[in-house]
Design goal:
The protein is mainly beta. It is about 0% helix and about 40% strand. Strand 21 and strand 22 form a beta hairpin. The chain starts with a strand and ends with a strand. The protein has two domains: about 170 residues, no CATH class; about 70 residues, Sandwich (Immunoglobulin-like), CATH 2.60.40.1930. The strands form six sheets. The protein has a six-stranded parallel sheet with strand order 1-5-9-12-15-18, with no helix packed on it. A six-stranded mixed sheet has the order 2-6-10-13-16-17, covered by helices on one side. The chain contains one helix and 27 strands. Bound molecules: calcium ion (2 copies). The site of one calcium ion has 9 residues, from loops. One calcium ion binds next to loops.
Length: about 300
């Protein structure tokens, strides 16, 4: 799961091993944004392996930005870490709101967890942690009492705006810039929240935004700026929006089947010759992109 935005839902992102005795593996959760959700921003693992739930193994949560989740206080924390083996949680920004804890590590749940290089912030006080049912107030208390977060940070990540409809890009002075794990190597197909290369200046930045001085950080990235109609389609459809310079059509396996370098809008796309099914339309402007799903029937 990557490059998603979850807001005003229950939980932001849930990577969960639901069924007792069942092991889930190889899940990657990266470069996502969760804000203003009612429940926690990320729930990762499960709560009662083996008898009540399953186990999550060989999985990771990296480069995600969490801001102001658990707004109803339904959850006990912003980030829930349950029963997991051989997992990596790093390079994330976890910005709370003092509703409950910042992070909970469920007692006895983690084996071989790498929890490091995350940036924590609570606007009215220190981040709080629970590990093995012991509470820690402040990152330094957590660092000195556990094996986790030796390179973690407690600092305001300096988002561009935290007003209503926040802009969760980093400002140029953000301590999240170059604060991630220096050994992190992005996949070829991995991008930050703007579709930019995941590493600008090494190391990687914490959170879903890699900072670039030339990015238009005014962009209200999660607003749906482009429309496609009709959808579902019989093969002819229209793309509309401002500032479009490129539109690419991908099939379900991720292969590009058509590219349009067209800047007059609206314009028409024709995939009538393609087999019926699901397609993805990636619409780019100079500084951002959105991907939309189209059903060809
Ligand atoms: Ca960087
Ligand atoms: Ca960026």
């Amino acid at each position: 799961m990557e490059n998603n935005i979850s807001y005003r839902n229950d939980a932001g992102f849930v990577v969960w091993a639901e069924f007792n005795h069942v092991v889930q593996k190889n899940i990657i959760l990266r470069n996502n944004i969760a804000f203003d959700n009612l429940d926690g921003g990320i729930l990762f693992g499960s709560w009662g392996y083996p008898d009540y739930t399953g186990l999550l193994i060989n999985s990771s949560a990296t480069g995600n930005t969490l801001y102001n989740n658990n707004i109803n206080g339904n959850s006990e924390e912003q980030f829930y870490i349950g029963f997991i083996n051989d997992c990596v949680i790093g390079n994330n920004i976890i910005y709370g709101n003092n509703n409950g804890r910042t992070v909970t590590l469920v007692g006895g749940g983690q084996q071989n967890l790498t929890l490091n290089y995350n940036l924590y912030f609570e606007p009215n006080g220190q981040p709080t942690f629970q590990n093995n049912d012991i509470d820690y107030i402040g990152l330094s208390d957590f660092q000195s009492s556990t094996s986790y977060e030796s390179n973690g940070l407690n600092a305001d990540p300096q988002f561009v705006s935290i007003a209503e409809n926040p802009n969760l890009h980093l400002q140029s002075t953000s301590p999240a810039i170059n604060a991630g794990n220096p050994d992190y190597i992005p996949d070829n197909e991995e991008f930050d929240m703007d579709g930019e290369d995941r590493i600008n200046i090494s190391p990687i930045d914490c959170g879903a935004d890699e900072y670039y001085s030339v990015t238009n950080t005014d962009s209200n990235f999660y607003v749906q700026k482009f429309s496609i109609f009709p959808n579902p389609t019989t093969g002819l459809f229209t793309v509309e929006g401002n500032g479009i310079i490129k539109t690419e059509i991908y099939n379900i396996t991720g292969k590009i089947i058509k590219t349009y370098n067209i800047n007059e809008v609206p314009f028409n796309i024709d995939i009538r010759e393609q087999p019926k099914g699901i397609y993805f339309v990636r619409i780019s402007t100079n500084n951002e992109f959105q991907v939309k799903k189209v059903i060809l029937q």
